[in-house]
Design goal:
Elements lengths: L5 H16 L15 H15 L12 H28 L5 H36 L6 H7 L1 H17 L5 H13 L2 E2 L4 E2 L4 E3 L5 E2 L4 E2 L4 E3 L3 E3 L17 E2 L4 E2 L4 E3 L4 E2 L4 E2 L4 E2 L8 E2 L2 H8 L10 E4 L6 E2 L1 H14 L7 H7 L4 H6 L11 H15 L5 E2 L3 H10 L3 E9 H12 L5 E5 L10 H10 L6 E5 L2 H10 L2 E5 L6 H6 L5 E2 L3 H7 L1
Parallel strand pairs: 1-4, 2-5, 3-6, 4-7, 5-8, 6-9, 7-10, 8-11, 9-12, 10-13, 12-14, 15-18, 15-20, 18-19, 20-21, 21-22
Antiparallel strand pairs: 16-17
Helix pairs in contact: 2-3, 2-7, 3-4, 4-6, 6-7, 9-12
C-alpha cells in the first residue's frame, strides 16, 4: 500500500530534530522566539519618519504634534516587546520574567529620552556630508538618498541599545543597514559628531573602534582588528583603532589594532595599511604610489598642470556611445553591440569606433554615412546616461583649491568634448581639446601641446592622466609623466601589460600623489 512518501518524511523530520538536539544552538527547553527582523526594520523606518519629518512619510513638521506622540507611543511599545523577546531568548531561565519586564521598561524609557540628542548629532552628520561632497545637490538629497546617512542613522540608534546590553536587536539593526548600504558599522563603536561617509561601499568599523569629531571616511576603509584567531577570548578587549578629530581616511585604507591611535588632523592615503600609531598633523600615503609619480629625476618636480583624458578617465560615456551607435546600426539591420564590446573599442576616436563595429569597416559603402548619422545622434544624446566616475567631482574641486591648471584632451570629436566639459565640469576644467580637422587624434601629441600652450604651462611641470594604452603612448610621445587609472575602460592587468608604471585604483588616490 502506497504511503505517498510519509515514512520518508517522518524519518527525515526525526533526523533533522536529532541534529538540532545535538547542538547548543537551539535551546530546546526555552520556548521563546528570536526578535522579529521585520518589526526591527519597521521600527527603523518609523524612527526615520519621526526624526526627519516630511522626508519618509506624508507627515510634515506643520502637523508634528498630531502624529509624533502616537508614533512615539507605538515605537516604545513595539521596542519594549522586542526587548522582552530578546531577553527571554538570551537569558531563558537565568532571570525572572519580572526582571525582564523591568529591564525592558527602563531601556525603552532611556532610548526614547535619547532621541532628541541623537537627532541633534544626526543633523551634524547631514551637515558634514553635504559640506564635504560637492556633488550633493541639497541636504534633502543627503537625508533621503545617501547610503552613508542611512548607515550612520541606524548605527546611532543601535548604539544606545548596545550600551544598555540588549542582545540581538543592535545586530539586527546594523545588519539591515549593512545589507542596504554595504557599510558595516558595529553598534559598539564610539563615533563623534559631524561624521562623513562618502560612497561607503565596503566600509567596516569594528566593535571597539573609537572615532572623534569631523572625521571623513571613504569607500573600502577597514577599521579592524589585527587578528581574531583567539575568537571569544578577545570579547570585551579593545581590538580596533582609535581615530582622532578632523581625520580623513581615503578609499581602501586599512587601520588595524586596538593599540593603534591616529592623531588629530591626519590624512590617510588610499590603500594604506596601518598597524602602528600616527602622530597628529601627519599625512600618510603608500610609498609605492609616491615613488611611481615622484621617482627618478622628477622626485623634486612640482606639478602645476594636470591634463586628463575624458572617456574612461573623468566620464563614463560608454552607455551613450553604445546607444547612439546601436540606433544607427539598427536602421541598417546591422548587429548591435553590447557594453563590453563598446569599452574595448573606445579610445581611438569616433571613426575608429564606427569602423570596428560596422560590418566590413571602412570598406562598407555605408561607412561614411553611418559616421555622420552617429555624430548627429550622439550630439543630441551625449549626456543621457553619461556621468562622472564616483569621486571625480570632489577631486577636481580639490585640485582647483590647490591652484593647479587643468585640461582635457580627447579623441572624441571636439564638438562633443566642448559640450560634455561645459555640462559636467564647468569652472573645473580650464581648457578642453578634441579631435578636429586641424588637430589629429591621440597618440599624436598635438592635443597636449595645444593645451599646454593655451594654459601657459611647461611639460616639466605637467602630468597626463588616462585609462588606456592610447593614453600611455600619447604621454610617451608628448614626453610627459603618465598616470593610468583602473576605474575606466581598461583593467589594471591590461594596463600593466601595456607598461603602465603608475596605476590609480580610485580618484582620491590622485590627491595623495599631489600632496
Amino acid at each position: 500500500m502506497e504511503n505517498n512518501g510519509n515514512d520518508l518524511i517522518f524519518n527525515i523530520s526525526s533526523k533533522l530534530k536529532e541534529n538540532c538536539c545535538s547542538q547548543d544552538l537551539f535551546e530546546i527547553n526555552c520556548k521563546h522566539n528570536y526578535p522579529s527582523r521585520d518589526v526591527i526594520i519597521k521600527l527603523i523606518k518609523d524612527l526615520r519618519r519621526l526624526l526627519f519629518p516630511g522626508y519618509f512619510g506624508k507627515e510634515t513638521l506643520s502637523v508634528f504634534d498630531d502624529y509624533s506622540i502616537p508614533l512615539l507611543q507605538e515605537i516604545r511599545e513595539e521596542l519594549r516587546e522586542q526587548i522582552i523577546v530578546a531577553l527571554r531568548f538570551d537569558k531563558c531561565s537565568e532571570i525572572s520574567e519580572e526582571e525582564i519586564n523591568a529591564k525592558a521598561e527602563s531601556t525603552c524609557d532611556h532610548f526614547i529620552s535619547s532621541l532628541p540628542q541623537i537627532q541633534k548629532v544626526l543633523f551634524t552628520d547631514v551637515e558634514a556630508i553635504y559640506q564635504g561632497d560637492p556633488a550633493a545637490q541639497s541636504k534633502a538629497e543627503v537625508i533621503t538618498s545617501y547610503p552613508g546617512t542611512l548607515a550612520i542613522f541606524v548605527y546611532r540608534l543601535a548604539h544606545v541599545l548596545y550600551l544598555e546590553k540588549i542582545p540581538a536587536i543592535p545586530r539586527l539593526m546594523n545588519e539591515y543597514a549593512h545589507s542596504r548600504t554595504g557599510i558595516d558599522i558595529h553598534a559598539g563603536a564610539e563615533i563623534g559628531s559631524y561624521f562623513f561617509i562618502d560612497h561607503g561601499t565596503g566600509i567596516v568599523i569594528g566593535e571597539t573602534t573609537v572615532i572623534g569629531d569631523h572625521v571623513k571616511i571613504y569607500q573600502g576603509v577597514t577599521l579592524g582588528a589585527l587578528s581574531t584567531r583567539r575568537g571569544q577570548e578577545l570579547a570585551g578587549i579593545k581590538r580596533h583603532p582609535t581615530i582622532g578629530n578632523y581625520v580623513t581616511i581615503y578609499s581602501g585604507a586599512s587601520i588595524l589594532g586596538g593599540e593603534t591611535i591616529i592623531g588629530d588632523n591626519v590624512v590617510i592615503g588610499g590603500n594604506s595599511f596601518i598597524t602602528k600609531s600616527i602622530s597628529s598633523d601627519s599625512k600618510v600615503s603608500m610609498k609605492s604610489s609616491e615613488l611611481l609619480v615622484k621617482s627618478q629625476e622628477s622626485s623634486k618636480k612640482k606639478i602645476d598642470t594636470i591634463i586628463f583624458d575624458l572617456d574612461g578617465t573623468l566620464l563614463d560615456t560608454a552607455d551613450d556611445l553604445m546607444n547612439s551607435l546601436n540606433r544607427v546600426l539598427f536602421e541598417y539591420n546591422y548587429p548591435q553591440i553590447d557594453a563590453d564590446r563598446t569599452k574595448k573599442c573606445l579610445g581611438n576616436g569616433i571613426k575608429k569606433f564606427v569602423e570596428l563595429n560596422v560590418p566590413g569597416g571602412t570598406e562598407n559603402p555605408n561607412y561614411e554615412t553611418i559616421v555622420d548619422l552617429f555624430k548627429k545622434d550622439y550630439l543630441n544624446n551625449c549626456a543621457v546616461f553619461t556621468k562622472p566616475y564616483e569621486g571625480i567631482i570632489h577631486v577636481l574641486h580639490e585640485i582647483k583649491k590647490l591652484g593647479l591648471k587643468t585640461a582635457i584632451v580627447s579623441n572624441k570629436a571636439d564638438f562633443a568634448v566642448q559640450e560634455l566639459t561645459k555640462h559636467y565640469f564647468d569652472n573645473l576644467i580650464d581648457v578642453s581639446v578634441g579631435e578636429s580637422e586641424s588637430i589629429p587624434r591621440k597618440p599624436n601629441p598635438q592635443m597636449i601641446e595645444k593645451a599646454l600652450k593655451v594654459l601657459g604651462s611647461s611639460k616639466e611641470n605637467a602630468v597626463y592622466i588616462g585609462d588606456s594604452e592610447v593614453d600611455l603612448k600619447t604621454a610617451e610621445n608628448a614626453k610627459l609623466d603618465c598616470i593610468s587609472v583602473a576605474w575606466g575602460f581598461r583593467s589594471m592587468s591590461f594596463l600593466k601589460d601595456q607598461g603602465a608604471k603608475v596605476i590609480l585604483s580610485s580618484p582620491e588616490d590622485l590627491l595623495n600623489i599631489l600632496g
